[in-house]
Structures are given as C-alpha cells and as structure tokens.
Design brief:
The complex is a heterodimer.
Chain A lengths: L2 H11 L10 H6 L4 H24 L9 H23 L1 H7 L10 H11 L4 H31 L1 E2 L2 E2 L9 H4 L1 H22 L1
Antiparallel strand pairs in A: 1-2
Chain B lengths: L1 H9 L2 H44 L7 H8 E6 L2 E8 L2 E12 L4 E9 L5 E8 L13 H5 L7 E2 L2 E2 L3 E3 L9 E3 L5 H22 L4
Parallel strand pairs in B: 8-9
Antiparallel strand pairs in B: 1-2, 2-3, 3-4, 4-5, 6-7
Classes of the chains: A mainly alpha, B alpha+beta.
Chain lengths: ~200, ~210
C-alpha cells in the first residue's frame, strides 16, 4: 500500500469512529468544548503514532501470547507522557480535561490500530496509519464539539460568537447531546454509502 | 546462531524476560519524564494555591512570592492546614479548605471568614466536577459573591442559608440557587454549614 493510501484509509474510508464505531466513549466525554477536543485529539494522534511506531519496531520480538500486555504497556507509557506534558506546560487545559487524558489508554482505537496494523506493518507505515486514524478521530471530535459548543455556550474555541440574545441550550453541554450528535454524524456520513452499495 | 535464538524465543521464560526488559525500559523513560516535570508541577500548584488564598481574602498583589508571607501565615492543626490573614500583625480572618459531595463528585473550596467566624469574607471553588453550564456555574462570580459578607455565626448560632430561586431578591440568610442545579447549589451551602460547624470552635481566636 502507498503511504497516501494508508493515510486516507485510516483517516476517512475506515475512520475509526464513523466506520468502526470505536473510541466513542471519549468522543462523547470531551466534546462540549472545541479546545478540549483539539487537545484530546492531539494527545490521541501522538499516542497512536508513537505506540504504532514502537510496536511495529519490536513486532518480531513480541511473544504472541503476551502481545496485548506489551501493547498496553507501551500505549500506557505514551499516554502518561502526554499527561505529564500537559500537567507541566498546560496545567489549565490539563485541569479542564480532567481524567480523560489518562483514559486515552482505554481508547479502543489505539489498541485496535496496534492489533490491526502496527503488529503487521513497517514502523514508518504504522506512524502514518496512526496519524491518519488519530486525525480521523480528531475530525469527528471537532465536528461534534463545534455544534455542541456553539449551541451550548454560544462560542467557538472560547470566543463568543452568538452574543447575549442566544439562549444557551443546556442539553448541548451535557452528555446526552453527544450521543445525538454522534448518531446524526454517523447517519449523515454513512447514508450515501449504503445507497450506493 | 539464528537457530539458537529461535529456540530461546520458544522457551517459556522468554515472554517473562521480554516483559521484564520492556517494563524496565518504559519505566525508566517515564521516571525520567516524571523527574523533569515534578518540580515544575509542584511549583505551579503552590503558586496556584497561594494565588487562591490571596484572592479569597481579596488582597491585591503584584508579586505573590513577596506578598504571600507578608499577609498569610500557614497553620496546621491535626490534619487541617489553614491560613491566617494578618494586617499589621492584627489577625483579620481565617481561610480553610471545605469540601462536600456535589452531584458528580466532591467539591473542594476555600472559605475565608472573619476572626470571630461572624461573617463570611469570601469563598472560592478549588475543584469541582459539576455539570458544565449548570452545576458548573457555582464557579461563576455572581453565585460566589452572594456569600460575601453573609452573617455566619450570630449569637453563637450557626446560620444555615436558605436557597431561593434565581430571580427572587435574597434576604440576609438567603442564597440564590442556580436554576437547574439545585443539588450543586445545595452542596455548597451544606458544606459551608457542616465544615464551619466542625472548625469554628477549634479555630476561633476570641474563645
């Protein structure tokens, strides 16, 4: 597979969220603010790329029976690095993301890519695949967050857009709206495909 | 040689040794990162706390590192760490951490009171996990500012604030609650009552 193809496949055609319905727990949790979604997305991209790279690098040596343990260890290490990095340099963002950065460890996308791709392909390809999958995930987060933040807070990235006349929709701030938005998004994206098929 | 290696990789100890080595490597990497960030994180936390204590007493400051020790004395009593605010060596008030369960998790706050616990000086939310946009509004200043100057203990009777709706006019012992977030508003009022009851006799200067 060509590099570009790998990227497009993991970011769009096989997008982890809308095609594989993975990683939705975190997609629901942090998407009431654009900034939080972006930081979360970057964290996931970083973790995916580097864990993919590392797992691919040592894939020949990982004993098959304990590969899940090894993957979890590697993923967890990178997530802790992201967490420490945010705590050190961006304490405000780290505080507002709360436990969700640490919970990147449990994001099924990362384990999924490790199992499905990094364990079988070269390190460079795995990095591209990781960045692709991460960006696909970030894209979904940002789309949902743009709607939720706009209707829920009247702002985007914390900048007021709608002004005082706007009555904030509390439901958009709370978790249920993320379910609606995600479902609508998946519906819109997957409908044309099903018609074609 | 290659043959020998393959044999070793098929042995039962190989996975164990592999796991040990890789764990050691990654713990090493993480420990390095942690060492690097620890001092900075600690420093940030300390400054944040100092800023908050100064803020809760409403002491204007340009240089927190200089001004903090000038006005604030950190005290310890049993498990409680609290702060005394002195102006020209006269004790003005206390600040101590209070906490209670909110809707989703524990709410932590700092409460500043006058030296006789007669009035609330100010309250500041340190940490909360309430619903953003609803209970999360306990951090908004209109809500917190309601507590400023409220009578806390009058004639040795501890005041328990009543909650009223957002568009009513609050009397002395009343607090406007946040619409749609009764539980979070109540949590704050309750934790003030409970923790003041717990600490007031221990800390008060005039006893």
């Amino acid at each position: 597979m060509k590099k570009k193809e790998i990227f497009i496949t993991s970011a769009f055609t096989q997008n982890s969220v809308w095609r594989q319905i993975l990683g939705i727990c975190s997609a629901l949790a942090v998407t009431n603010l654009m900034l939080n979604s972006l930081v979360m997305g970057l964290g996931v991209i970083f973790t995916l790329a580097l864990s993919g790279f590392t797992i691919s690098l040592i894939r020949e040596y990982i004993p098959k029976r304990i590969r899940m343990m090894v993957q979890t260890l590697i993923i967890a290490s990178y997530v802790i690095i992201v967490d420490l990095f945010l705590k050190t340099f961006y304490p405000e963002i780290s505080k507002s993301l709360g436990p969700y950065v640490g919970l990147i460890i449990t994001n099924c996308i990362i384990m999924g890519r490790a199992e499905a791709f990094a364990g079988k392909n070269s390190p460079v390809d795995s990095v591209i695949d990781g960045i692709g999958a991460g960006m696909g995930y970030t894209l979904v987060l940002l789309i949902i967050a743009s709607v939720r933040e706009l209707f829920g807070f009247g702002s985007l990235f914390g900048i007021p857009i709608l002004g005082d006349w706007w009555t904030k929709w509390s439901i958009m701030v709370m978790a249920p709206s993320a379910f609606f938005m995600l479902a609508i998004l998946i519906w819109i994206i997957n409908t044309p495909r099903q018609k074609r098929g | 040689m290659a043959n020998e290696k393959k044999l070793f990789r098929e042995t039962r100890v190989y996975p164990i040794i592999f796991m040990l080595i890789i764990t050691a490597i990654f713990i090493g990497i993480l420990a390095t990162f942690y060492q690097f960030s620890f001092a900075k994180v600690q420093k940030y936390r300390k400054t944040q706390l100092k800023k908050m204590v100064m803020g809760v007493f409403e002491i204007p400051t340009q240089n927190i590192e200089n001004d903090f020790p000038r006005y604030i004395t950190i005290r310890k009593m049993e498990d409680l760490i609290y702060y005394e605010y002195r102006q020209d060596s006269i004790l003005m008030g206390y600040c101590f951490p209070i906490s209670g369960s909110g809707l989703w998790g524990t709410i932590h706050a700092l409460l500043a009171v006058t030296r006789d616990f007669g009035k609330i000086i100010n309250i500041e939310i340190v940490d909360q996990n309430e619903t953003p946009g609803l209970g999360g509004r306990i951090t908004e200043s209109w809500f917190k500012d309601q507590f400023k100057g409220k009578i806390l203990i009058d004639d040795n009777i501890l005041n328990n604030f009543m909650l009223i709706s957002e568009n009513e006019i609050a009397k002395d012992n009343e607090i406007k609650q946040i619409t749609g977030a009764t539980a979070s508003s109540k949590a704050l009022v309750d934790m003030i009552y409970e923790d003041v009851k717990k600490y007031n006799l221990k800390l008060r200067a005039d006893l």
